[in-house]
Design brief:
23 helices
């Protein structure tokens, strides 16, 4: 009880609530603007979180995350353009309802589904994450290396495109994470060691500039291509009734529960992704929803076709935090950024977090709950403003994203101009690299996870071999590792049979 009260005290402050509200608004705006993603929003706000208390910073990032996930339904419903791939399943029914004059009902239903799906997945997170974290007490460096490899390969296997591209991007991220100096000897790893030792490059590539470059700057460069092909905006849709009736919501309890269960389960599997969950939930709603006189079927403009994917989409947020907090394995690119934020703040996920810092754990849970409530309130309040927001020209938006990216990168080490300039150069270079990779349809998520998990892979591998007195076959002696190898094989094969 004392830990819970301490967690409440961390969240129930004016500063924390202010940043939660601001993060929710920013997240909804980012989600509502097609092409801007939750990952980019969280990466841009990452430097701000370092100047806040840990609980406040995490609550703010979670509010950006949940707001952007929910906000992606806005352009999907109003314009038929998903804010990100996770809103693809919302387009058919949502935009059909807009054409039928029910845009307000579709937007309100999406907000309710986002809240219900997020809160139910949060309950699952609270119930299961501590037990999964406790199981990690049996893990030594051998098992931790296998966990990092498992997370990296699953993300690579589930990435869009083929398995080889995902593995290649993961390997590239690991290589980039190993630049700089040896963590055990502090010796520079590149030939010109004496020169590097006197420059910021001796410390390698930092996570924040890399994230901002790969997601913020690369997205702005992609939007430059879109700017040449963007047509003039169409008429602003009319907004009528916003909130669905209580009786209609109660009649859809099965859709809510099944969609939330699908989203939470998919979110808890590293690499599965919300895009899988939303289509599974939409298909399930189509099969279980019977015909009603005077209403179209699911897929042709029915409210259940909006609620199912949106509940699953937001349930993924709680499910994805389960492996992050309990195992230190991010489920997707957004939770990879959140994991990076925790680790930079000196918080190590796993059993130690739940054993030694339960007030912070409760604060994270409460912060996510507050973020979901703020998302719901602002999404409903802004229903009549969203059509105007969608008409923001890209020619204005792109410079704003670039300026925020440069300011956020510089703020990481603003007190050291040389290092700050180096970080900005890293962000710009990786922004161009990310742009080229995305244009060539290479997945970025495995690269980011390679950057984060690379040090974990190296440290635990070297420590395990050292404890085994140089025996590199030590990994074959652990039943846990052998079980994980089996999962790795299944993950590799899954990409071949996945639709």
């Amino acid at each position: 009880m004392d830990n819970l009260l301490a967690g409440v005290a961390m969240i129930a402050t004016f500063e924390t609530l202010f940043w939660i509200a601001l993060g929710s608004i920013l997240g909804i705006v980012l989600g509502a603007l097609p092409g801007l993603t939750a990952t980019m929003g969280v990466a841009l706000m990452l430097p701000v979180s370092f100047y806040l208390p840990t609980a406040t910073g995490m609550a703010m990032l979670l509010s950006v995350y949940t707001g952007a996930v929910a906000g992606a339904s806005i352009p999907a419903i109003l314009l038929g353009i998903p804010g990100n791939p996770n809103a693809l399943a919302t387009v058919r029914d949502g935009h059909a309802m807009t054409r039928a004059g029910q845009a307000g009902l579709a937007l309100g239903s999406a907000a309710v589904a986002s809240l219900v799906g997020g809160l139910l997945s949060l309950i699952v997170l609270i119930l299961f994450a501590p037990y999964l974290a406790a199981a990690t007490l049996a893990f030594g460096p051998t098992e931790k290396f296998a966990i990092a490899a498992l997370g990296l390969l699953i993300i690579a296997a589930m990435s869009e495109g083929n398995l080889l591209r995902g593995i290649a991007m993961g390997a590239l991220g690991v290589c980039l994470s190993l630049l700089g100096s040896d963590p055990f000897t502090n010796a520079a790893r590149l030939p010109f060691a004496d020169t590097l030792a006197r420059t910021p490059f001796h410390n390698g590539i930092e996570l924040i500039p890399a994230l901002i470059g790969l997601f913020g700057i690369s997205q702005a460069l992609l939007d430059l291509d879109r700017l040449r092909n963007t047509s003039s905006a169409g008429p602003i849709p009319r907004i009528g009734n916003v909130f669905p009736s209580w009786s209609r919501l109660r009649s859809m309890w099965r859709v809510f529960l099944e969609s939330t269960g699908i989203g939470t389960l998919i979110g808890a599997i590293p690499g599965a992704g919300a895009s899988v969950a939303v289509f599974l939930a939409h298909e399930r709603a189509r099969k279980t929803t019977g015909p009603v006189d005077g209403e179209p079927a699911v897929g042709e403009g029915r409210v259940e076709g909006v609620i199912a994917p949106e509940a699953a989409n937001n349930a993924v947020t709680g499910g994805a935090l389960i492996p992050v907090l309990s195992l230190g394995i991010p489920g997707d690119a957004v939770t990879a950024v959140l994991l990076g934020a925790l680790m930079i703040q000196g918080v190590v996920p796993g059993a130690a977090l739940f054993a030694n810092d339960m007030p912070l754990v409760y604060a994270i849970f409460l912060g996510m709950g507050a973020a979901l409530m703020a998302m719901f309130v602002f999404q409903l309040l802004g229903v009549r403003l969203f059509p105007l927001l969608l008409r923001v020209p890209l020619s204005f938006l792109i410079p704003c994203v670039l300026i925020l990216s440069c300011v956020g990168t510089f703020a990481v080490d603003g007190q050291a101009p040389i290092k700050a300039g180096y970080n900005m150069a890293v962000a710009l270079v990786l922004g161009v690299v990310g742009y080229a990779l995305r244009r060539a349809d290479y997945p970025i998520a495995p690269l980011v996870l390679g950057l984060i998990l690379g040090p974990m892979l190296e440290d635990n591998y070297r420590l395990a071999v050292k404890l085994a007195q140089g025996d590199h076959l030590i990994f074959l002696y652990s039943p846990i590792v052998l079980g994980m190898v089996g999962v790795l094989v299944l993950a590799a094969l899954a990409s071949k049979v996945r639709r």
